[in-house]
């Protein structure tokens, strides 16, 4: 049996004895099982696997414990994955990530009672919680420079697309922009890797590579090795809010349903009349050959949300330098707007996010089939419901609970009016055809059925 004890790092090395006692109490809670799984995922950093069962199967004997010491709390690993070690020494980045998991799941989870009825549910309370979690993670420190670019895109992309994400990241890094992604492989790893080279060329030693995940997705997308600031939000809705309030600009690379969910969330917010003046630069980009993908996405947005939604982003194909220049121009507008509004540069308080975009959507067969998917609603409301439909498909594809439901009860049913269902079906089929649902080499079995009323 292999045992490894780890000293606390970062903010977790400055806990009071009362806080350590609370953490030990939390080790007997439901949160601890989540903490164990997320820690195991972090220990598998760099492993290209999006099936939680395959990832966890070899480690049934793995365990993790908290050991109380006068100076704080230690983590003890029992039978950890060898991939996390070099010559029997734990990789430093993995060490840091483990204490980030401890901070976000056990400390913050216990503080906000995240798994129970007392968890924040009011819109303002949720935003305050997102702010507090980012503050505890020190993500807001250094974010006053108005240079944080959130990059979204698929974990299942081809080599041409991956190289392009690196080139875009490189151009951003040369211009001293920091990168924030979902922290996994593919289009999340590429921009960070490219930016790291750009930062090195500019002798920028403070480059930030922020990875924001959530418990049900981190097992399918373990943090890549470039991430130097890991943050785990309680659920996908808090994760998305953290992205948009932290971001100064957003780049969207080719991806599958998860990327479509992120785009729909963003458009739903920007279509709110109270956000019409928000100058957030949003760029959809990919290499030559990705035109078909962007045409499909752009047509879907036009047919479902309309021309107003299309005005919220621009598409740039095969031109990383133009992407970087367009973002530089957009960031100047962000500075002026935040200054005029008296808003913080580090956290976008003035962005209005309706409660429906903040409340967790739990994908079940009932909740998926009950979604209102028709044009008899405001564009922002339709974007919210479409986002939920795509979120359910993500759950069915890669999240443990979603996969279990599909195995037990069969595919989720998505039902709506004929035109809208046709639009959804065409887009999803294009994702399947382009192998964007699962990692290359694995067969995809749809977890959904599209039905017309």
What would your notes on this structure say?
The protein is an alpha/beta fold and 453 residues long. The chain has 3 domains: 3-119, MCP/YpsA-like, CATH 3.30.1850.10; 132-341, Rossmann fold (3-Layer(aba) Sandwich); 355-452, no CATH class. It has helices spanning 17-26, 30-43, 52-56, 92-111, 123-136, 159-174, 189-201, 215-218, 236-246, 257-270, 291-304, 307-310, 320-341, 365-369, 379-398, 400-409, 418-433; strands at 3-6, 63-69, 72-78, 85-86, 89-90, 148-152, 178-181, 209-213, 229-232, 249-252, 282-286, 314-317, 412-416, 448-452. Strands 9-8-7-6-10-11-12 form a 7-stranded parallel beta sheet, sandwiched between helices. The chain has a 3-stranded antiparallel beta sheet with strand order 1-3-2, with helices on one face. Helix 6 links the parallel strand 6 and strand 7. Helix 2 packs antiparallel against helix 4, helix 6 (159-174) packs across helix 13 and helix 15 crosses helix 16.
Question: What would you say about this model in short?
Answer:
This protein is α/β, with parallel strands linked by helices and 453 residues long. The chain is built from 17 helices and 14 strands. α8 (215-218) links the parallel β8 (209-213) and β9 (229-232).
Which helices and strands appear, and what pairs or packs with what?
Elements: E1 3-6, H1 17-26, H2 30-43, H3 52-56, E2 63-69, E3 72-78, E4 85-86, E5 89-90, H4 92-111, H5 123-136, E6 148-152, H6 159-174, E7 178-181, H7 189-201, E8 209-213, H8 215-218, E9 229-232, H9 236-246, E10 249-252, H10 257-270, E11 282-286, H11 291-304, H12 307-310, E12 314-317, H13 320-341, H14 365-369, H15 379-398, H16 400-409, E13 412-416, H17 418-433, E14 448-452
Parallel strand pairs: 6-7, 6-10, 7-8, 8-9, 10-11, 11-12, 13-14
Antiparallel strand pairs: 1-3, 2-3, 4-5
């Amino acid at each position: 049996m292999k045992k490894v004890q780890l000293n606390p790092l970062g903010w977790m090395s400055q806990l009071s004895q009362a806080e350590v006692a609370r953490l030990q109490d939390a080790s007997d809670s439901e949160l601890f099982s989540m903490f164990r799984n997320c820690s195991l995922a972090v220990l598998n950093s760099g492993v290209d696997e999006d099936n939680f069962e395959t990832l966890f199967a070899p480690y049934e004997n793995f365990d993790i414990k908290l050991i109380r010491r006068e100076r704080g709390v230690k983590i003890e690993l029992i039978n950890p994955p060898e991939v996390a070690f070099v010559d029997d020494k734990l990789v430093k980045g993995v060490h840091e990530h483990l204490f980030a998991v401890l901070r976000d799941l056990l400390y913050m989870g216990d503080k906000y009672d995240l798994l129970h009825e007392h968890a924040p549910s009011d819109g303002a309370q949720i935003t305050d919680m997102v702010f507090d979690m980012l503050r505890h993670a020190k993500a807001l420190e250094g974010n006053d420079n108005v240079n944080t670019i959130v990059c979204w895109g698929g974990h299942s992309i081809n080599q041409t697309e991956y190289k392009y994400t690196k080139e875009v990241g490189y151009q951003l890094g040369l211009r001293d922009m920091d990168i924030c992604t979902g922290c996994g492989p593919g289009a999340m790893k590429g921009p960070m890797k490219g930016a790291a080279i750009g930062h090195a060329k500019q002798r920028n030693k403070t480059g930030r590579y922020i990875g924001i995940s959530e418990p049900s997705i981190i097992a399918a997308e373990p943090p890549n090795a470039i991430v130097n600031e890991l943050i785990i939000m309680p659920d996908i809705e808090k994760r998305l809010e953290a992205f948009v309030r932290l971001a100064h600009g957003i780049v969207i690379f080719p991806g599958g349903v998860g990327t479509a969910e992120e785009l729909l969330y963003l458009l739903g917010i920007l279509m709110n009349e109270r956000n019409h003046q928000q100058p957030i630069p949003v760029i959809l980009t990919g290499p030559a050959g990705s035109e078909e993908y962007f045409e499909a996405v752009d047509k879907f947005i036009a047919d479902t949300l309309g021309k107003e939604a299309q005005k919220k982003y621009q598409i740039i194909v095969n031109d990383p330098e133009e992407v970087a220049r367009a973002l530089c121009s957009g960031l100047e507008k962000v500075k002026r707007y935040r200054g005029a509004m008296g808003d913080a540069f580090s956290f976008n308080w003035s962005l209005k996010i309706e409660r429906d975009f903040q409340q967790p959507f739990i994908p079940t067969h009932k909740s998926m089939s009950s979604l209102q998917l028709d044009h008899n609603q405001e564009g922002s409301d339709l974007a919210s419901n479409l986002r939920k439909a795509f979120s359910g498909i993500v759950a069915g594809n890669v999240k443990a609970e979603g996969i279990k439901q599909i195995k037990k009860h069969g595919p989720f049913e998505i039902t709506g009016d004929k035109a809208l269902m046709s639009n959804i079906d065409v887009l999803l089929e294009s994702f399947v055809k382009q192998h964007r649902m699962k990692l290359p080499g694995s067969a995809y079995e749809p977890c959904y059925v599209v039905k017309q009323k």
